[in-house]
Amino acid sequence: MTARFNPFRPGNIVNAGMFSGRGAELLALERVLFQTKNGNPHHFIVTGERGIGKTSLFFYLNLVANGEINSLEDTRFNFLVISIELQPTTTYAEIIKKIGSELQRTLSSHQKAAELLKTVWDFVKRWEAFGVSYTAPVKGETPHQLLEDLTQTVAQVVEKTALHFDGILFLIDEADKPPAESHLGEFVKLFSERLIKRGCERFSIGLSGLPTLVKKLRDSHESAPRIFQILSLEPLLPEERIDVVRRGLTQATEKGSNVTIIASAEKMIADLSEGFPHFIQQFAYCAFEADQDDVIDDRDVQVGAFNEDSGAIQQLGLKYYEDPFFGQISSEEYREVLRAMSMHSDDWISKTTIRKETGLRELTLTNALRALKNKNIILCKKGRKGVYRLPTKSFAVWIRAFTQRPSGTGSVAGS
């Protein structure tokens, strides 16, 4: 069969044309922009599990904020957007550097703001004088003094570009990755307060990350979460999942790959994905690749999902599940807990049931459940002590398919 354009993009940010759902969240964020534009700064946090679409939502919001596309309410914004991504090793000082450097880059891309470059460049040069660790202050300066420099620079940018831009939107993705010791919560609290004290009111700070983000902010600064509106992303609705598939096939047709899909296959992809946008992309991509007659049917979805060499379940395992199962867990007994839970798919299961099915001692099981919970590998039922579940059905399927002990051995394949 000749090569065809496959429109689905597992592992990548989806483009605006394939973006579906999130209407309520987008409206809430567009109102944040509107309030901020009018001098009433609002800040927000977007949380959700891996694969739920946080980064794609930020990308879409970036396009709305900088005026590349209209908002859902047909408003055209014109913000300077400063977008950065944090890493597990990012320190307090490096947060400042990332924002300062991205501010310089963003300003350099706008001719109207070019005259401000010298101010920002001076700030970045002062940062570079510290070196990467900030352990050797130069001329008595400290990271907190650099924060003051950043605050002053941002306030000047907002003031001097008032006739051309609506304000500045700071987007900080993967904000859950640095440890609490990086003091992201302290940074956003102090940064926002100092800007307000300087009379700067047309700025907004947005963070995205796993559900652990709010606790990390609170551990850094007790009142940090209070300045944010918190939006928790849930799985897409069944009709929204199908809309993603249809949008993708429309793009394929525009590229010359006229592929259709039957209704039951659409539903199967929607069900397998569990509403996680990245999972929709993965299952749809693999079904598209399995198709041989330009009509995606149930068999194409099944082959694409469960192929042992390149199927969607295996791919999701490599991207999402292998590290939590093998990398973050060193104890085979802890893995047995996950295997037992996988037999119940993503249903809630009691500690008593897990104990019966694993045969683990009470202390070992307690330690295992605590470790798995703290690593965000399993979920706890709110208001019910001792009740747990796996985050997705796909995780359960992957565990059963790819991590079982070989017959007659005492170790797990792949461990």
Bulk shape: globular
The biggest sheet amounts to: 5 strands, parallel
CATH architecture of the largest domain: 3-Layer(aba) Sandwich
| Coarse structural class | alpha/beta
By CATH reckoning, the class of the largest domain would read: Alpha Beta
Q: What is the helix/strand order?
A: HEHEHHHEHEHEHEHHEHHHEHHEEH
Number of individual domains: 3
Q: Helix content range of the residues, please?
A: 40-55%
Number of helices: 16
Adjacency order of strands in the biggest sheet: 2-3-4-1-5
Work out the number of β strands: 10
Describe this structure in words.
This protein has 415 residues and is α/β, with parallel strands linked by helices. It has 3 domains: 22-232, Rossmann fold, CATH 3.40.50.300; 238-307, Helicase, Ruva Protein, domain 3 (Orthogonal Bundle), CATH 1.10.8; 330-402, Arc Repressor Mutant, subunit A, CATH 1.10.10.10. 49% of the residues lie in helices and 10% in strands. It is built from 16 helices and 10 strands. Strands 2-3-4-1-5 form a 5-stranded parallel β-sheet. Strands 8-10-9 form a 3-stranded antiparallel β-sheet. Helix 6 (184-197) links the parallel strand 3 and strand 4. Helix 4 packs antiparallel against helix 5 (143-160) and helix 9 runs parallel beside helix 11 (298-306).
Sequence-ordered SSE layout with sheet pairings:
Layout: H1 23-37, E1 43-47, H2 54-65, E2 80-85, H3 92-108, H4 117-128, H5 143-160, E3 168-173, H6 184-197, E4 203-209, H7 213-220, E5 228-232, H8 238-254, E6 260-261, H9 263-273, H10 277-290, E7 295-296, H11 298-306, H12 312-327, H13 332-342, E8 349-350, H14 351-358, H15 362-374, E9 379-380, E10 387-389, H16 393-402
Parallel strand pairs: 1-4, 1-5, 2-3, 3-4, 6-7
Antiparallel strand pairs: 8-10, 9-10
